[in-house]
Specification:
The complex is a heterodimer of chains A (213) and B (279). Chain A is built from 6 helices and 11 strands. Chain A has 213 residues and is α/β, with parallel strands linked by helices. Chain A has one domain: Vaccinia Virus protein VP39 (Rossmann fold). In chain A, the strands form 2 sheets. Chain A has a 7-stranded mixed sheet with strand order 7-6-5-8-9-11-10, with helices on both faces. In chain A, helix 4 packs parallel to helix 6. The radius of gyration of chain A is 16 Å and the shape is globular. With 279 residues, chain B is mostly helical. Chain B folds into 3 domains: 55 residues, no CATH class; 88 residues, Helix Hairpins (Orthogonal Bundle), CATH 1.10.287; 121 residues, Serum Albumin, Chain A, Domain 1. In chain B, helix 4 packs across helix 5 and helix 4 packs across helix 8. The chains are: A alpha/beta (213), B mainly alpha (279). The interface between A and B is large, with 40 and 41 residues.
């Protein structure tokens, strides 16, 4: 697996962990300017640790849906280029604003990811679409936001089974979501995010090139 | 052709930029940074991103502040005012109808009749008085509608889980009956179940009535849509989820959609009992 530029394995008190360079945000371990990226608190972190081929190289333009308090998106901004962070709930956005204060290329938006027209006047086409929203209809959100992704871009999606249906078998939920995703995307790989996140599936996909397959 | 947030803006006008970010929308994204440089909004992309950072920070800060400024106390006052407006409008509408009957045989009734009357000029002094009174009814009815839309806008920010589970208006009524989000969060779910049925509850405690199965939550589809025989179970299940929702809303504030899914599942099971018995 290749890590994007700006993400390294770094030793914190003898333990090796993923890290990026930037101002600390949520009380994570630091060593100089390196901040420990905890895969237990970040689905994208878990995708990187479990060796998924994310296609991230560093410096990309990113649209991050479901930024919450900015735990993951702060690491993303550390190694990526301009990063648009969309979050719907006002309370976590307070922390997101704090993370964005020292990050000039992080643009926080209090918007609903189910209504992309509400932020399409701000967000430019991006190389990477990261999605981690705990709502029903996760595939629908990804499909609606496909318009932001460049044709050679990547969707990095964490599907939360319990958000779709608490009682159904997670495998069946994943299948459903992946099936809906094929309307707009071609799925490249999937990986369970256990043991970091139970009943979550990491997905790497690219926009469907209509007519070419 | 779509427009970016900076269309028609002076780069130095931060307030206008903030408003444009918050209130603007467009059908599809575009290469906003390079377009901004092209039209001279920013001299280069670095400068554009600097302007964008300032504008998004200010816009998001303002949006958060507005949504958080709406606290549970404002919601409680709004829902009580809405109820007062509705009740007063109905009471006055009855008075208007009674008066109207004395003047015309085909007088109608209710707020709708008042609305009709308000549109016509009164023919004599009494008619003018009646028309003016009818106008008050219409005003009160419209005030109630405005209060309702305020509640619908702000309840999801004040109590996201409750608003998702119970809808904005029932959420506000529960907050009103409990006396705020904190006290609702501290009530056992059995109490939440009978909030609004205090008369029936105390009659029961005095020993001369059966225990009430539900209070204000009767207005929720999960209870009302369930066969009367199983409404007690449905009300208990709903109250359980609502009190969990209230606690998350008070102590953490993040939305947990799985609550809704769990409730739907439980209510489906309860409602299936009736169908099972029919067969």
């Amino acid at each position: 697996m290749t890590l994007p530029d700006g993400v390294e394995r770094h030793a914190f008190d003898g333990e090796t962990a993923l890290a990026t360079r930037g101002d600390p945000v949520y009380g994570e371990d630091t060593d100089g300017s390196w901040r420990r990226w905890n895969p237990h608190r970040s689905k994208l972190g878990a995708m990187l640790v479990s060796g998924m081929e994310t296609g991230l190289t560093g410096g990309e333009t990113v649209l991050y849906l479901g930024a919450a308090a900015g735990t993951t998106v702060s690491h993303v901004t550390d190694f990526a280029g301009p990063t648009y962070a969309v979050e719907f709930a006002p309370r976590p956005v307070r922390d997101l604003l704090d993370a964005a204060r020292t990050r000039e290329r992080l643009f926080p938006l209090l918007e609903d990811a189910r209504q992309p027209e509400q932020y399409a006047h701000v967000v430019e086409p991006v190389d990477v679409l990261v999605q981690d929203v705990a709502t029903r209809g996760q595939a629908l959100v990804a499909n609606r936001n496909a318009q932001f992704l460049r044709s050679d871009g990547r969707l990095l999606l964490a599907i939360k089974a319990r958000s779709e249906d608490v009682t159904a078998d997670p495998e069946a939920v994943f299948e459903d979501v992946l099936d809906t995703l094929t309307e707009r995307y071609e799925v490249l790989s999937t990986e369970s995010l256990a043991p970091y996140h139970d009943d979550h599936l990491g997905v790497v996909a690219r926009p469907r090139r209509d007519g070419t397959f | 052709m779509t427009d970016g947030w900076y269309a028609g803006l002076d780069p130095g006008d931060t307030a206008a930029g903030t408003t444009a970010i918050r209130e603007g929308s467009t059908s599809a994204p575009d290469e906003w940074p390079s377009l901004a440089v092209e039209i001279g909004f920013a001299e280069d992309e670095a400068k554009y991103y600097e302007l964008l950072h300032t504008a998004t920070m200010a816009a998001t800060e303002a949006a958060v502040q507005e949504q958080e400024g709406a606290d549970d106390r404002q919601l409680v006052h709004a829902v009580r005012s809405m109820t007062d407006c509705e009740q007063t409008a109905n009471e006055l509408a009855e008075r208007v109808a009674e008066w109207g009957e004395s003047r015309s045989r085909d007088a109608g009734s209710g707020v709708e009749y008042a609305r009709e009357l308000a549109e016509n000029e009164g023919e004599d002094a009494a008619g003018a008085q009646l028309q003016s009174l009818a106008q008050r009814v219409v005003d009160l009815d419209e005030e109630a509608a405005r209060l309702r839309s305020y509640i619908e806008r702000t309840a999801p920010a004040v109590a996201p889980n409750l608003a998702a589970l119970a809808g904005p208006v029932l959420t506000a009524r529960l907050l009103s009956l409990a006396g705020g989000l904190e006290s609702l969060a501290k009530k056992p779910s059995g109490t939440v179940q009978v909030l609004g049925a205090e008369d029936a509850l105390f009659a029961h405690l005095r020993g001369n009535a059966p225990s009430p199965k539900h209070g204000i939550i009767f207005t929720h589809e999960a209870v009302r849509g369930t066969h009367p025989e199983h409404r007690g179970s449905a009300a208990r299940a709903l109250a359980g989820k609502l009190s969990i929702g209230a606690r998350i809303d008070h102590y953490s504030g993040d939305l947990r959609p799985e609550l809704q899914a769990e409730l739907d599942e439980r209510i489906e099971t309860i409602q299936a009992r009736t169908e099972g018995e029919k067969q």
